[in-house]
From TrEMBL:
Pfam families: EndIII_4Fe-2S (PF10576), HHH (PF00633), HhH-GPD (PF00730). Its cofactor is [4Fe-4S] cluster. It comes from Vallitalea guaymasensis. It comes from the Bacteria. It catalyses: 2'-deoxyribonucleotide-(2'-deoxyribose 5'-phosphate)-2'-deoxyribonucleotide-DNA = a 3'-end 2'-deoxyribonucleotide-(2,3-dehydro-2,3-deoxyribose 5'-phosphate)-DNA + a 5'-end 5'-phospho-2'-deoxyribonucleoside-DNA + H(+). This is Endonuclease III. Residues 40-187 form the HhH-GPD domain. Belongs to the Nth/MutY family. Binds 1 [4Fe-4S] cluster.
Length: 218
């Protein structure tokens, strides 16, 4: 595991290279739209979700509209996001619960959020961090991959990674760590072909250093 000195240096470098303000990559105008967009984002890119929700939120303009949606029609509306049958079922079930138990409002309590259909800790933390500004760590594919490379965790399970990061990162970094790491994962530390030679985090990345040594050896 990375030591405190390394963690501090990594966080400082992230702050120097990426904005400190919270940036949500999913387009939304209110809490329930972000909730639905996050459910749709499972195994799908944010860009694709934003394309779909642009029309989706014009067609369904309230939690009630989604709760009363025809499931077959909703499936077709969200088909391009993948796993559309499960997602449609979850969205309708989630919105029905919002109406029945929460007066149509999206709760901020994580225990209440994860009881909603289709909502796990990742989605709950997206809502808590972006809507309610509650310090939360969102473990998406970028955070999972890059945190492991940096030695911030040894796990692959998102919940275990979340708790590891909560333990070692200062609370004021919890929300922006996710958005900064997403930016880094998109621009430099991509999954298929990481640009290690351009990476300012290279000195703290065991995987990156090994990749550079292999390139030199070749």
């Amino acid at each position: 595991m990375a030591n405190n000195k390394t963690i501090k240096k990594v966080l400082n470098l992230l702050d120097e290279n990426y904005p400190k303000d919270i940036k949500c990559y999913l387009d939304h105008e209110n809490p329930w739209q972000l909730l639905i967009a996050t459910i749709l984002s499972a195994q799908c890119t944010d860009d694709r979700v934003n394309i779909v929700t642009k029309d989706l939120f014009r067609k369904y303009t309230s939690v009630k509209d989604f709760a009363e949606a025809d499931i077959s029609e909703l499936e077709q509306d969200i088909r391009s996001t993948g796993f559309y049958r499960n997602k449609a079922k979850n969205i309708i079930g989630c919105c029905r619960t919002l109406l029945e138990q929460h007066d149509g409002q999206v709760p901020k309590d994580i225990e209440k959020l994860v009881k909603l259909q289709g909502v796990g800790r990742k989605t709950a933390n997206v809502i808590r961090g972006n809507i309610y500004n509650i310090p939360s760590i969102v473990v998406d594919t970028h955070v999972k991959r890059i945190s492991k490379k940096l030695g911030f965790t040894e796990y692959t399970d998102p919940v275990k990674i979340e708790f590891d990061l909560m333990e070692i990162l200062p609370k004021e970094h919890w929300i922006r760590y996710n958005t900064q790491v997403i930016a880094h994962g998109r621009a430099i530390c991509t999954a298929r072909s990481p640009k290690c030679e351009r990476c300012f985090l290279l000195p703290y990345c065991k995987t990156g250093l090994e990749n550079m040594i292999n390139v030199i050896d070749e």
